[in-house]
Amino acid sequence: MRGHSGPLDADEEWAGDVVDTVEPRPVIDSIPRFEGRIWSIRTDTVDFAGHHAVRDVQQHLGAVAVIAIDDDDRVLLIRQYRHPVAMALFEPPGGLLDVAGEAPHLTAARELAEESGYEASTWHVLVDFLNSPGGSSEAIRVYLARDLQPISGGRPYTGEAEELHLPRAWVDLDEAKDLVLTGRIGSPTAVCGILAAWASKAGGWLSLRPVDAPWPARDTVIAHDRVNVARRD
């Protein structure tokens, strides 16, 4: 931690509930730095009880991912090249929330069909996470999809560049969990989604939420102007 001007109480302990809460700090100034297709960057000057700190903020569209599990408890992953890390990663199907007005669970169903050629008749919310909250507003929701069927006509062609070739891999859920814990796969949606699915299954799936369950984190970043505006209709 840098820039702390006063003494730090090493013995300070939290006495309240352990739950994320909405506590926006006043923004004294905000300077746009970059406007992109998927995200924008701005520099905010934030007031921390009289101490002003400068923070760069990535305003992100947000995204969804789908842990699709078949009747044999196999997880569907796709292999996709990711240029920023120069790696081909095994990931669950998913994509950006870039269609204005489209409900997140409908985005998830569309992405599952487009990237895998499958549809599901049983859907639940599995886990939500903030991908890099120290610098980005990206909120991601991972759905669990079961009762899978291949769509009529097979996987549609909808992509280009790295989305031209998305080979599928079916991996037993226990094996997928081991792949995460041994560091052999590291995409954040795969890590969070696979571990959440493994834990939820071990608990009898009691942690699953309705497909349209509230998404407080995304509601918060939208309400406080932290989300890039969806441009695709």
Automatic annotation (TrEMBL):
Keyword flag Hydrolase: yes
Keywords: Hydrolase
Record-level GO cellular component terms: cytosol
Keyword Ribonucleoprotein listed: no
A Pfam family of this chain: NUDIX
InterPro entries listed in its UniProt record: NUDIX_hydrolase-like_dom_sf (IPR015797), NUDIX_hydrolase_dom (IPR000086)
Domain Nudix hydrolase: from-to ranges: 58-193
SUPFAM superfamilies recorded: Nudix (SSF55811)
GO MF annotation terms: hydrolase activity
One Gene Ontology biological process: ribose phosphate metabolic process
PANTHER family with a match to the protein in the record: ADP-RIBOSE PYROPHOSPHATASE (PTHR11839:SF31), UDP/ADP-SUGAR PYROPHOSPHATASE (PTHR11839)
Protein name, as recorded: Unannotated protein
Species whose genome carries this gene: freshwater metagenome
